[in-house]
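Quiz preparation item.
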């Protein structure tokens, strides 16, 4: 159809990369997309551009996890725990992951406990440390570890506490470095340096042109 809007091959939308445009005589514009998992599928351009469709279906939603986006990647570290894989056979309604502790023990922990900082080891560290004060426990829950990812942000390290609020320095996927409250990042209220909002606005504008 003359004048039909298409997406340029190579454009990336979250987990999907445009491979080629699909010729259609009528109806919405379609394209083939390659997902990060390697599969290639065809979707409506508007679905992908607006963010309605951001993967091929390989990413299972994390239920009961505020601010969580997609699955926790293999190798992600949460204090003394390293994620190995998702526990598909766990009967709980919560998403669980099998993790390897630094002491060598393998344990299963809920995703929300890992992301929230409530689980830091298999239990070995509690035995080594002994009882902690309430202030020490609160600080441990709020702290981030360098390399952890939250949305588009990667933790670089902590910054001095101001007014009782724990803060960290983050590097955004766009390259910008920012300092934000740990609580807002952990809750999902902050997922980028601000570029996510800008990119979403551009995506909506492009979707309007496609239509």
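Solution:
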């Amino acid at each position: 159809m003359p004048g039909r809007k298409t997406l340029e091959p190579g454009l990336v939308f979250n987990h999907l990369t445009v491979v080629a445009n699909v010729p259609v005589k009528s109806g919405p514009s379609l394209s083939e997309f390659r997902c990060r998992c390697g599969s290639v599928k065809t979707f409506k351009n508007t679905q992908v551009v607006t963010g309605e469709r951001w993967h091929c279906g390989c990413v299972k939603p994390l239920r009961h996890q505020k601010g969580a986006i997609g699955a926790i990647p293999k190798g992600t570290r949460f204090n003394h725990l390293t994620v190995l894989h998702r526990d598909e056979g766990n009967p709980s309604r919560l998403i669980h992951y099998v993790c390897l502790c630094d002491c060598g023990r393998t344990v299963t922990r809920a995703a929300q406990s890992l992301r929230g900082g409530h689980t830091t080891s298999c239990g070995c560290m509690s035995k080594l440390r002994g009882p902690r004060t309430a202030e020490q426990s609160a600080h441990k829950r709020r702290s981030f570890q360098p390399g952890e990812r939250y949305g588009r942000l990667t933790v670089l390290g902590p910054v001095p506490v101001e007014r009782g609020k724990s803060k960290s320095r983050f590097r955004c996927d766009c390259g910008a470095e920012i300092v934000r409250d740990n609580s807002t990042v952990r809750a999902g209220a902050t997922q980028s340096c601000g570029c996510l909002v800008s990119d979403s606005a551009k995506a909506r504008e492009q979707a309007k042109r496609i239509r």
